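Deviations from the work plan: none for this task. Representative record:
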Amino acid sequence: MPELSIILAGLSDAFTITNLFFVFLGVLLGQFVGAVPGIGPVMAMAIAIPFTFGLDALVAIGFLMGVNKGGLVGGAIPAILMNTPGTPDAAATALDGYPLAKQGRPLKATKMALYSSVTGDTFSDIVLITVSAPMAILALKMGPVEVLGLIILAFCVISGLIGNSITKGIIAAALGMLAATVGTDPQHATPRFYFGYFEIYDGLPLAAVAIGMLAISEILRRMAENTGVMRKGIEVCDTGNPADQRISWPEYWSCRFTLVRGTIIGTILGALPGIGSTAAAFMSYAGARQASKHPETFGKGNIQGIAASESANSAVMGANLIPLLTLGIPGSVGAALIISAFMIHGIQPGPLMFEKQGQLIYGLFGAMVMANVLNLIVGQVGMRFWIKVVSAPESVIFPSAILLCFVGVSLASGGISGIVIMLIFAVLGLVMNALGFSVVIFIIAFFLGPRLEESLSQTLALLNGNPWALLNYPIALALVVLAAVVLFSTQRKRGR
Amino acid sequence: MKNAIDRLSGLFFVLFALALWLYLIPTQIETVDYGAIRPKTLPQILAVILGLFGALLMIKPADGTDLSQVPWAKTIMIIAVLVAGLWLVVELGFVYSATPLALTLIFLMGERRPLWISIGGFVIPALIWYAVTILLERPLP
Amino acid sequence: MIQKRKFFKTIAGALAGIAMFGAAPVLAEDWKPSGPLVIEIGFGAGGSTDVIGRIVANTIKEQTGWNVIAENKPGGGGMAMFTAIANKPADNLTVGLGVNMPVMINLVNRPDEVKFNLDSFAYLGTAAGAQVALVARGDAPFDDLEGMIAYTKAQGGLAIASDAKPQVLTMQQVAAQAGTEFQFLSTKSSAEIIKLLLGGQALVGFATGTHLEYLESGELKMIASANRTRHGYAPDTPTLIDEGYDVYVDPWFYFAMSADTDPEAQTAIAAALAKALATDDVKSAVRNALSVEVVNLGPEPTKQMLVDGIENVKILFGK
């Protein structure tokens, strides 16, 4: 623990008007850009980095943290209001957020998302600020074998979402993983299924696949179903009952277990590099449904579903900074961008950072707390703005959203090829939906598949043909046993 | 009829798995002779899974699929418009193709009010152009 | 239409060039880009290449007043980006930033599928060469390559963490010559390798700069330099070549444009690039990202570096 004077100096660096202004600007930009379909928090940060060249290190990083945190909140907005998640981690939010919005209660749904997101985020920031050093040691001890165990556990938890037909669920998962094998394989770096197109030599870009399958295919479906009646994008039903448009304290409090579960899942997965927020959001969602006394209400506008997903995917980001600040290891693309920003400002992230840059780090923590508060304030105004926007006629909303997806995907994944891939996967999503194959399962498998293959190949290299060596990895074995228990109880619940 | 669609999709996956195993994997993946997991290991496992569960779907269809609800003609029309729009973007660039693409989609949806048509067809593309090119200094596709 | 317009502009520019050729030689300083100069980074956001591309773009913009944009064009370790540059009509505005290794490996291994060759490009210069080190945990029971090989033989194997194919091939050559076998832990970044080493999951791995502060703290020790030469910070640590294994890897970050680019534009952009690479801002960013100093070889030697490198890659792949 550094001296109190350094902590205080760092915090007083953080709480200046300049900083407040730039963090505010970042949150505003993040919430706005993050809500645009096609541009998630990571894309928002990549766009924002050049603007930080001229700024002081703390102001620049504070601004970027603001963008990132704002983007996490903003990302939930298209998922809830239009059922068109721009990033795969917001897909879990759409499962209950959109039904609730469709019932005429969009403000209630977005508020629940905002409060859950800030709750998860704040908790994981507190973990980062107080116990990052021990958490980092824990993260170091989680090697490939333990990560493999964790991914198996994630698959088993998420299998609770597989839907009515197990056969179709497994086919959807296998297809998702197959799509993820396009590009260089993790073990040998030889190309697979690239058919001579170097654009996909590194694999299909996640942004293009996710937006195509989740957002464009949904927009296509709703455009085709439109019967020529000019409907609004979303109807806010005015029952005169204020409870429909807000989250009361008892409602928030009733989600406390869900929030805590989501936050813990998000924080743990965030501290481990490479697994990411999509798995966290879906694990938390599946867990909440599994634990609920009324699992049948999930998917129909249950605020618990929103709380589960948003608390988990937001908790990932704060925890992502644990390996970054203590070891210099980025836990995600977003964290990697923060590292870029540090390096551009002449700061080398790594184990000596607390020693050499203590004041800056505590300044950063101050800025993060500031960003959380600002997120809450900006969000209150921002979601009303977006609900207004989405209340425009569908005939204008959908074509505009398509244009934005075109631009967003081409910015995020390198030009026209991204748009082509997006359209191909939009059609695939449409067909799969019509035939009863779960698109969500496909996306989760697409996301987790490469991580499974990589950790499996690393595990086998470490075991070197000796299965008994597994006994040296008690944590991994415990995770696999837990996975089996989860799978068993999920299937038993299904059987009932 | 409902079961027939499931059986047909099952058949499709069986055939797809065969094509994967016999043609796509041998031609599109390089052979590597070391390491525990070869480049083709996972695709081969997935081909087996797809084949087996495709066959299972043929034998025991799921609880039925109804395709008659989907307005296919309109869906295909919209997809065709998007593909044409993409072709325009490639040929002319986003700036010149956004308005025709947006207007076509707006008309397809039956919008006839001049205010909304002009917002969707002109204001939004202009806003996107302004935000990306001027504010963010990024090139449009 | 835009393509066409660019085409006519190119023709007009070429005609003007020919007309002026007789009159007076054009000074490089007089050349100005006709639109935004785009530095295409062959990797995604948030890596060392990304840092270099962005800071260089920004510095050229400040120094010349040109509008310079850095854009990520990931795919195949820069292959997607370089393929596009080589096959689009030259616009005098597109500069590619990539790493030589993936390009050379693809040119050697799948020459029929790669839609360019070394002559498809005009080379502008390099930002730096990366120093690749073979490092081990501080408490490993060996201190040099010889000890490591003996340990591998005694244990019946050794897992080496790497983040690039050439590193694996290099160590396979070493293993073959020494009569033993390594297992390889493939990872996506050098940061992940450091994590495996510090976490105790791997004993040996490759590092490209991130290891320096751990060498100081004693948590890691350096076994060998995998480059052709020893590293400046560790003059006493031998290279693999010093140890009797005739293999090396030499990754370079380099800038190139289409070979059809106007010679004036080439000269002007190469000069602007050289000037930017000499600034303190770029130097410190490169030092932070790669732990090495900026080395700009300049246009001609950059090309020579690739030509020589291809020969070495052929050895690595046994071709």
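Strands of chain A lie at 183-184, 191-192.
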